Amino acid sequence: MHPDLPAQLTDVFVKHGIKEFRPAQHKALHAGLLEGKNVLVCTPTASGKTLIAEMAAGKAILEGKGKAVYIVPLVALASEKAKDFKKKYSGLFKVALSVGDFDSSDPHLMDYDLIICTAEKLDSLIRHHAPWLQLVKVVIIDEIHLLNDVSRGPTLEILITLLKKMLPDVQLLALSATIGNPEELAKWLDAHLVQDDWRPVPLHKGVLLQDTIEFE
Hints:
Radius of gyration: 18 Å
Low-confidence stretches: none
Number of strands: 9
CATH class: Alpha Beta
Oligomer: single chain
Order of helices and strands: HHEHEHEEHEHEHEEE
Mean pLDDT: 92
Number of domains: 1
Strand content: 15-25%
Strand order of the largest sheet: 3-4-2-5-6-1-7
Shape: globular
Structural class: alpha/beta
CATH superfamily: P-loop containing nucleotide triphosphate hydrolases
């Protein structure tokens, strides 16, 4: 494990069977993940992007630097993340789910350390001047390639712009498996770009025709 990780975080990882980091995780660490640097991670599905987010958020929270916000595109995904993180980090820090009710600043979130929400919900919280937002140190943007999405893209772009203006010292961590212009996006985010093609299971491409698959 990395020497800059809080011991409590390392213990949780080991407890869950994580004995060594994957290639993308090593690259993120070398890019300054634990030093508060902005990082854009573009690696295949199941390559370990979520753990990269957990390292950044966990370090900020456990070292008393501030809260972390984890932005996901769908309510169902937010609920799943919240359930997993609450179970994994029970007793270490407090995890909250904030979705729906776009007419509230959710003041109770002041008592939580890691807040999981959708972009639309966070946009609403900003517009309602939620006071606890000034305590946010790390913002994780999952599926950032949705910036190109016709319906969600504009909200996400404005949200990131607002966050950079409101919280000049915030650490931005953006995650995606598919980005067409990663260098350009990294420059806009003022982030170090982490790219890797390692995946836990080999991917083979082929064509199915009349119950027969011909692989490339």
